[in-house]
Design goal:
Layout: H1 2-26, E1 82-85, E2 96-102, H2 104-107, E3 113-121, E4 130-137, E5 154-157, E6 160-163, E7 173-175, E8 182-185, E9 204-209, E10 213-221, E11 234-235
Parallel strand pairs: 4-11
Antiparallel strand pairs: 1-10, 2-9, 3-4, 3-10, 4-5, 5-6, 7-8, 8-9
Protein backbone atom coordinates (compact mmCIF):
# COMPACT_ATOMS: atom_id res chain seq x y z
CA UNK A 1 0.00 0.00 0.00
CA UNK A 2 2.67 2.50 1.07
CA UNK A 3 4.75 1.40 -1.87
CA UNK A 4 1.95 2.26 -4.29
CA UNK A 5 1.35 5.63 -2.60
CA UNK A 6 5.05 6.48 -2.87
CA UNK A 7 5.08 5.34 -6.49
CA UNK A 8 2.08 7.48 -7.44
CA UNK A 9 3.46 10.46 -5.50
CA UNK A 10 6.71 10.20 -7.41
CA UNK A 11 4.84 10.18 -10.72
CA UNK A 12 2.81 13.21 -9.62
CA UNK A 13 5.93 15.19 -8.63
CA UNK A 14 7.65 14.37 -11.92
CA UNK A 15 4.54 15.33 -13.92
CA UNK A 16 4.19 18.57 -11.97
CA UNK A 17 7.82 19.41 -12.67
CA UNK A 18 7.37 18.80 -16.38
CA UNK A 19 4.26 21.00 -16.49
CA UNK A 20 5.98 23.84 -14.63
CA UNK A 21 9.07 23.53 -16.84
CA UNK A 22 7.04 23.58 -20.05
CA UNK A 23 5.02 26.55 -18.83
CA UNK A 24 8.17 28.52 -18.12
CA UNK A 25 9.44 27.83 -21.64
CA UNK A 26 6.30 29.16 -23.31
CA UNK A 27 5.47 31.98 -20.89
CA UNK A 28 5.72 35.53 -22.22
CA UNK A 29 8.90 37.11 -20.87
CA UNK A 30 8.25 40.27 -18.92
CA UNK A 31 10.95 42.92 -18.72
CA UNK A 32 11.91 44.45 -15.38
CA UNK A 33 9.73 47.30 -14.17
CA UNK A 34 12.17 48.84 -11.68
CA UNK A 35 15.64 50.29 -11.96
CA UNK A 36 18.52 47.97 -11.00
CA UNK A 37 20.24 48.48 -7.63
CA UNK A 38 23.25 49.91 -9.46
CA UNK A 39 23.79 50.95 -13.11
CA UNK A 40 26.38 48.29 -13.93
CA UNK A 41 24.54 45.03 -13.33
CA UNK A 42 24.49 42.48 -16.15
CA UNK A 43 21.60 42.85 -18.58
CA UNK A 44 20.65 41.29 -21.92
CA UNK A 45 21.10 43.13 -25.22
CA UNK A 46 17.98 43.28 -27.35
CA UNK A 47 18.64 41.29 -30.53
CA UNK A 48 15.33 42.19 -32.18
CA UNK A 49 14.22 45.29 -34.06
CA UNK A 50 13.20 47.39 -31.05
CA UNK A 51 15.34 50.39 -30.13
CA UNK A 52 17.61 50.09 -27.14
CA UNK A 53 20.00 52.55 -25.52
CA UNK A 54 22.54 52.52 -22.73
CA UNK A 55 24.85 54.97 -21.03
CA UNK A 56 28.36 54.64 -22.43
CA UNK A 57 29.88 52.26 -24.93
CA UNK A 58 29.38 48.53 -25.34
CA UNK A 59 32.94 47.95 -26.56
CA UNK A 60 36.05 50.03 -26.12
CA UNK A 61 36.28 50.86 -29.84
CA UNK A 62 32.66 51.94 -30.24
CA UNK A 63 32.11 55.58 -31.09
CA UNK A 64 29.31 57.49 -29.36
CA UNK A 65 27.69 60.30 -31.29
CA UNK A 66 25.88 62.03 -28.41
CA UNK A 67 28.56 62.80 -25.82
CA UNK A 68 28.44 59.21 -24.64
CA UNK A 69 25.04 59.61 -22.99
CA UNK A 70 23.11 57.33 -25.34
CA UNK A 71 24.98 55.03 -27.67
CA UNK A 72 25.33 51.57 -29.09
CA UNK A 73 27.81 50.60 -31.75
CA UNK A 74 27.06 52.69 -34.84
CA UNK A 75 28.69 50.11 -37.11
CA UNK A 76 26.61 47.17 -38.27
CA UNK A 77 28.59 46.36 -41.39
CA UNK A 78 32.33 46.35 -40.82
CA UNK A 79 34.22 47.47 -37.73
CA UNK A 80 32.94 50.18 -35.43
CA UNK A 81 34.26 53.63 -36.36
CA UNK A 82 37.71 54.16 -34.89
CA UNK A 83 38.51 57.54 -33.37
CA UNK A 84 42.01 58.86 -32.77
CA UNK A 85 42.47 61.84 -30.44
CA UNK A 86 45.63 63.58 -31.54
CA UNK A 87 45.74 66.81 -29.62
CA UNK A 88 43.09 67.05 -26.94
CA UNK A 89 45.59 68.37 -24.38
CA UNK A 90 46.58 70.75 -26.22
CA UNK A 91 50.19 70.58 -27.46
CA UNK A 92 51.30 74.16 -28.11
CA UNK A 93 54.90 73.65 -29.25
CA UNK A 94 55.33 70.60 -31.44
CA UNK A 95 53.10 68.95 -34.00
CA UNK A 96 51.39 65.77 -32.85
CA UNK A 97 51.58 62.53 -34.84
CA UNK A 98 50.50 58.92 -34.60
CA UNK A 99 52.63 56.73 -36.85
CA UNK A 100 51.89 53.42 -38.55
CA UNK A 101 48.10 53.46 -38.13
CA UNK A 102 46.68 50.39 -39.88
CA UNK A 103 43.52 51.31 -41.82
CA UNK A 104 43.03 47.97 -43.62
CA UNK A 105 39.88 47.05 -41.65
CA UNK A 106 38.23 50.33 -42.65
CA UNK A 107 39.58 51.15 -46.11
CA UNK A 108 40.80 47.83 -47.50
CA UNK A 109 37.79 46.89 -49.61
CA UNK A 110 36.04 48.19 -52.72
CA UNK A 111 33.64 50.28 -50.60
CA UNK A 112 36.56 52.31 -49.33
CA UNK A 113 36.25 54.37 -46.18
CA UNK A 114 35.45 57.85 -44.98
CA UNK A 115 37.95 59.85 -42.94
CA UNK A 116 36.45 62.65 -40.87
CA UNK A 117 38.44 65.38 -39.13
CA UNK A 118 37.10 67.36 -36.15
CA UNK A 119 39.23 70.42 -35.39
CA UNK A 120 39.13 73.41 -33.08
CA UNK A 121 41.81 76.10 -32.65
CA UNK A 122 42.78 76.63 -29.01
CA UNK A 123 43.87 80.27 -29.18
CA UNK A 124 40.98 81.56 -31.30
CA UNK A 125 38.30 81.88 -28.64
CA UNK A 126 35.36 82.19 -31.04
CA UNK A 127 36.47 79.37 -33.33
CA UNK A 128 33.79 76.75 -33.85
CA UNK A 129 34.46 73.05 -34.15
CA UNK A 130 35.16 72.48 -37.83
CA UNK A 131 34.77 69.17 -39.56
CA UNK A 132 35.97 67.93 -42.88
CA UNK A 133 35.66 64.52 -44.46
CA UNK A 134 37.16 62.68 -47.39
CA UNK A 135 36.45 59.35 -49.06
CA UNK A 136 39.47 57.09 -49.48
CA UNK A 137 39.50 54.12 -51.87
CA UNK A 138 42.34 51.63 -51.69
CA UNK A 139 40.80 48.64 -53.44
CA UNK A 140 38.21 50.02 -55.85
CA UNK A 141 38.21 47.93 -59.08
CA UNK A 142 38.62 51.06 -61.20
CA UNK A 143 42.00 51.60 -59.58
CA UNK A 144 43.15 48.00 -59.87
CA UNK A 145 45.49 48.70 -62.77
CA UNK A 146 47.27 51.25 -60.59
CA UNK A 147 47.43 49.11 -57.48
CA UNK A 148 50.92 47.70 -57.98
CA UNK A 149 54.19 47.50 -56.11
CA UNK A 150 54.61 51.26 -56.31
CA UNK A 151 51.03 52.55 -56.64
CA UNK A 152 48.50 51.88 -53.91
CA UNK A 153 45.10 53.20 -54.92
CA UNK A 154 43.65 56.69 -54.74
CA UNK A 155 42.17 59.21 -52.37
CA UNK A 156 39.17 61.32 -53.33
CA UNK A 157 37.29 63.92 -51.34
CA UNK A 158 35.85 67.39 -51.06
CA UNK A 159 38.21 69.86 -52.75
CA UNK A 160 41.10 67.40 -52.60
CA UNK A 161 42.13 64.47 -54.74
CA UNK A 162 45.52 62.83 -54.49
CA UNK A 163 47.15 59.79 -55.99
CA UNK A 164 49.52 58.51 -53.37
CA UNK A 165 52.65 56.37 -53.24
CA UNK A 166 53.73 56.97 -56.82
CA UNK A 167 57.21 55.71 -56.10
CA UNK A 168 59.64 55.35 -53.24
CA UNK A 169 60.63 59.00 -53.57
CA UNK A 170 57.36 60.50 -54.81
CA UNK A 171 54.74 60.13 -52.11
CA UNK A 172 51.72 62.31 -51.42
CA UNK A 173 49.27 63.27 -48.73
CA UNK A 174 46.38 60.81 -48.53
CA UNK A 175 43.91 63.43 -47.37
CA UNK A 176 43.93 66.72 -45.45
CA UNK A 177 41.72 69.75 -44.85
CA UNK A 178 42.58 72.62 -47.15
CA UNK A 179 44.56 74.55 -44.56
CA UNK A 180 46.39 71.36 -43.51
CA UNK A 181 45.66 71.75 -39.83
CA UNK A 182 45.54 67.97 -39.79
CA UNK A 183 46.31 65.27 -42.32
CA UNK A 184 46.59 61.58 -43.08
CA UNK A 185 50.00 60.90 -44.61
CA UNK A 186 51.52 57.91 -46.35
CA UNK A 187 55.12 58.85 -45.67
CA UNK A 188 57.43 59.94 -42.86
CA UNK A 189 57.61 63.71 -43.09
CA UNK A 190 59.96 65.97 -41.18
CA UNK A 191 57.26 66.87 -38.64
CA UNK A 192 56.34 63.34 -37.68
CA UNK A 193 59.33 61.10 -38.25
CA UNK A 194 58.23 57.50 -38.17
CA UNK A 195 58.98 54.80 -40.70
CA UNK A 196 56.99 55.91 -43.74
CA UNK A 197 55.46 52.46 -43.71
CA UNK A 198 52.96 52.94 -46.51
CA UNK A 199 55.44 52.29 -49.27
CA UNK A 200 55.99 48.84 -47.77
CA UNK A 201 52.45 48.42 -46.42
CA UNK A 202 49.69 50.23 -48.36
CA UNK A 203 47.33 50.10 -45.39
CA UNK A 204 49.46 52.00 -42.87
CA UNK A 205 49.39 55.79 -42.57
CA UNK A 206 50.57 58.58 -40.28
CA UNK A 207 48.04 60.87 -38.60
CA UNK A 208 49.24 64.44 -38.11
CA UNK A 209 47.94 67.65 -36.56
CA UNK A 210 49.47 71.07 -36.00
CA UNK A 211 50.13 72.47 -32.55
CA UNK A 212 47.29 74.48 -31.00
CA UNK A 213 44.73 72.41 -32.92
CA UNK A 214 42.44 70.12 -30.96
CA UNK A 215 42.02 67.24 -33.39
CA UNK A 216 40.02 64.03 -33.60
CA UNK A 217 40.20 61.82 -36.69
CA UNK A 218 37.56 59.14 -37.25
CA UNK A 219 37.68 56.29 -39.79
CA UNK A 220 34.40 54.80 -41.02
CA UNK A 221 34.12 51.62 -43.09
CA UNK A 222 31.77 52.64 -45.89
CA UNK A 223 29.56 49.57 -45.85
CA UNK A 224 25.85 49.62 -46.64
CA UNK A 225 24.84 50.03 -43.00
CA UNK A 226 27.79 52.05 -41.79
CA UNK A 227 27.37 55.47 -43.38
CA UNK A 228 28.88 58.33 -41.36
CA UNK A 229 26.22 60.44 -39.68
CA UNK A 230 25.56 64.02 -40.71
CA UNK A 231 26.96 66.32 -38.04
CA UNK A 232 26.28 70.03 -37.84
CA UNK A 233 29.44 72.05 -38.24
CA UNK A 234 31.58 74.02 -40.60
CA UNK A 235 32.47 71.89 -43.60
CA UNK A 236 35.71 72.94 -45.32
CA UNK A 237 37.73 74.93 -42.77
Amino acid sequence: MLKNIFKHSTYFIIALGLVVGASSLYAVWQGPTALPPNPNVAAPINVGDLEQTKAGKIKALDFCLTDGSRCLSVATNGPAPKMYILNDGVQTVNDVCINDVDIRDYCGDENGCTVRFYMNHKTVTNDEVRFYESAVYLEDPSFSSRNSATVYGNSMGYDVGYTFVLSDTNQEVVTAPRNSWASVLDYANSRCGGTGATYNDPYKVTLHTDSFIRTKIVFYDDGVNNVPPVVAGRNSP
